[in-house]
């Protein structure tokens, strides 16, 4: 049998339960007197929604609750039905419905209150799925102690724990890197929890051991599994393979892969992808391509993750043609590439001077009903502007605007390109359009406009933009100061530099070190330093 590699106290389970119970008791709200008891029977309460159904069944209430977008209103409906609707009684399914919605929204304090209601109602027989839902969502919310607490409370509701709730808890603990807890729960599953682990339980433990870096522990577990009446499967070996990959041991990973083949099993897409990812991380792209070729020869179809791993590897090696071909293949197989993946392909295409191919990819995404988002569109607009293709950038912006709502990033990229090209009139029109659409400019937007004015030799207008920037509550950054000081310095406007320093000092209360560094780097060669100091320091300091 699997031996314990790290010593645990034999009383850990009892202490853990005691500690969690103490936490739960201390965090529970005090019971208060229900004011509804003193209200006359003739008093009529207004239902939270109208029309309120005359005939209300649990099934209909669940439908009403699930249709509500406002979660607070859904909870009000639940409570109103239980307290004020004649001849209506909540059952397990109504509680499950509202607790599920609350747990997904991380409204755990309401979940706990409803759970206490259930515990006090002996007429309602609970099911395990309610606790599985809470355990899963506590895990997703990074609250592993609460997940354990819920698991330990299951018998208090007259429900027998099963391997389903155990596996859910172990997954939650792995997600939160509580690897020692995983082993502890596994070790106590039969004796303390009366749950017999299955192959999925063992696979989760293998995953925990691999993530912890204990590959030898994972191997020993595989050896002990037949003694538990369990046979390792492809998922088990794939998990072990991923452990070797995480440690950078590709020889060990390849050996595990060969073990899968020796057993007569067919590796699935995940197994192949894990091995390919290992080679890609080591820069061994040729080996990764060979694994993908073997995958295709064995009629194993690549999945979304497979495509992502290989496309990213091609982009990293600046092989834009291969990356584009694989992305096309991904689209043909009806997989939706992520925005990050599309941006990487667009970047590598444009870096290689293939902006037209990047534009063709953008339009292909539209054609395949994979609407490029603001991240993808702004990336391509940036490259078009950088290549001086402002007309194409505007056209692409207009196409994007017909099918989506441009965000600040997309506006910023086009405004930056227009300002860089000195087309401030068009940049101003786009600015106005952005404001009309409710998109608020940030420091980057203001900086680009200031830079545009400085570039055409009108830094004074840039100073007016700075005033507006302060008035709108958008604080300038080091880039703002550098752009203005460089522009004023080029235009020999010494007095305006001093004016800038005064504005900054008045608005921000001080001139920090970063701004002085900008001044020293960019302006002092052309500016009378004495005048600057006289404009900043009070008379007693100057004396």
Question: Please, could you describe this protein's structure?
Answer:
This protein is mainly α and 543 residues long. Among the domains are: 233-300; 302-370, no CATH class. Helices cover 68% and strands 0% of the residues. It is built from 30 helices and no strands. The protein has helices at 12-27, 58-67, 71-84, 92-104, 108-119, 128-140, 144-153, 163-175, 179-187, 199-212, 215-224, 234-246, 250-262, 269-281, 285-297, 304-316, 320-332, 339-351, 355-367, 374-386, 390-403, 408-420, 424-436, 443-455, 459-471, 478-490, 494-508, 513-522, 529-536, 539-542. Helix 27 packs parallel to helix 29. The longest helix is centred in the first third of the chain and has 16 residues, at 12-27. It is globular and about 85 Å long. Mean pLDDT is 86; it is low at 1-37.
SSE blueprint and pairings:
Layout: H1 12-27, H2 58-67, H3 71-84, H4 92-104, H5 108-119, H6 128-140, H7 144-153, H8 163-175, H9 179-187, H10 199-212, H11 215-224, H12 234-246, H13 250-262, H14 269-281, H15 285-297, H16 304-316, H17 320-332, H18 339-351, H19 355-367, H20 374-386, H21 390-403, H22 408-420, H23 424-436, H24 443-455, H25 459-471, H26 478-490, H27 494-508, H28 513-522, H29 529-536, H30 539-542
